[in-house]
C-alpha cells in the first residue's frame, strides 16, 4: 500500500470511528452477557412487578430517562441527590415531580447482590424505561443497547438549561433536540411519549387564561377541549392539579397522541408547536398509524439513549444510584 492509500485508509477508519462514537460508541446488545447474565432479566422482573400495581410508572420512567439523557447525556446524573455543597438535577423544577427512584434503588440493590459493581445506574434507567412501557404488551417494545457508565456530576442549573420546556415554540424545541444531535423526526417521534402520563396545570394554564398576557385563550387550542381543561384547572396558579396528557388514552401506550394533536388537543404549548411547521406536521400525520409509531419510537429511543454516553473507563459504576462512589 502506498503512502497516499495508507493515509486515505486511516482517514476512513478515523471518520467512521467518529460516526460510531456519535451513535453510542461502545454501547452494544447484551453488554452484560458474561459479567452479569441475569442483569436484564432482573431489571424487567422488578420493573414489571411495580408497574403491575402502579400504572403511572411507565410515563414516570420514560420521563426520567429523557431528562437524564438531555443533561450530560445518559449517565444516571438525574438520580444523584443534592449535597451540602451542590444542588443536583433532582432539585430543578422540571425534575421535582419525577418519581420511581425507589424502584431504581430496588433494582440496583438486587443487581449489587447478584453481581457487585457491574451494572450501571444509567443502564438501569434506560432498561426500566423500555420495560415499564413494554409491560402493557408483555414483550420488549424496542432494543436497548447497554454499556453506559455513571457520571459523577449533577447540577440543578444544567437541568434548567438543557431540558426542553413545555412552553417552547417550534424553533426552540428543534434547537434543543439538535443540541443533542437529535433530528426534527426524533423530536416529533419522542413527543409521542406524551401518549401516557399527566401534566400539572401550571405548565399549560396560561393557554387557558392568559396566553398573550391579556387574559386570553390560546386560539390554537380546541375550544371544547379548553373548556374541559378549565373545569379541571380553575386558576392560572394551580400547581397541584394534574391532567391527562393524552385525553381518553393516558394509560395506554399507543399513537392516539397524534390523533388528539390533529384535533388541536395537544396539552402543552410544545405539543401544539409540532403543528406549526409543515415538515413536522407531516410527520405527525404519518405517526397516527400505530405500527409506524411503534417502529419509529423504538429507533428514536435508541438514538436518544446513546446521547453523550460515558463508556469504557469513563465515569464509574455506582454502588448506590443516588450517591457517587
Give structural attributes.
mainly alpha, two-stranded antiparallel ribbon, 2 domains, Peroxidase, domain 1, Peroxidase, domain 2, globular, 325 residues, 2 strands
Outline the structure in words.
By secondary structure, the protein is an all-alpha fold. The chain has helices at 3-22, 39-53, 57-69, 101-114, 121-134, 156-162, 170-178, 184-191, 206-209, 223-232, 256-262, 269-272, 278-287, 290-304; strands at residues 198-200, 242-244. It has a two-stranded antiparallel sheet with strand order 1-2. The termini are far apart.
Topology (SSEs and partners):
Layout: H1 3-22, H2 39-53, H3 57-69, H4 101-114, H5 121-134, H6 156-162, H7 170-178, H8 184-191, E1 198-200, H9 206-209, H10 223-232, E2 242-244, H11 256-262, H12 269-272, H13 278-287, H14 290-304
Antiparallel strand pairs: 1-2
Helix pairs in contact: 2-4, 2-5, 3-5, 8-13, 8-14
Concise synopsis of the structure shown:
The protein is an all-alpha fold and 325 residues long. The chain has helices spanning 3-22, 39-53, 57-69, 101-114, 121-134, 156-162, 170-178, 184-191, 206-209, 223-232, 256-262, 269-272, 278-287, 290-304, and strands at residues 198-200, 242-244.
Looking at the structure, the CATH topology of the largest domain is: Peroxidase, domain 2
The largest sheet, given as strand count, sense and whether it forms a barrel, is: 2 strands, antiparallel
**How many helices in DSSP terms?**
14
Order of helices and strands: HHHHHHHHEHHEHHHH
Adjacency order of strands in the biggest sheet: 1-2
What is the name of the CATH class of the largest domain?
Mainly Alpha
Provide the gyration radius in Å. 21 Å
Low-confidence stretches: 1-24
Number of strand elements: 2
Structural class: mainly alpha
Q: Please tell me what the overall shape is.
A: globular
CATH homologous superfamily of the largest domain - what is it?
Answer: Peroxidase, domain 2
CATH architectural label of the largest domain? Orthogonal Bundle
Indicate the proportion of strand residues. under 5%
Rounded mean pLDDT is 92
Number of domains: 2
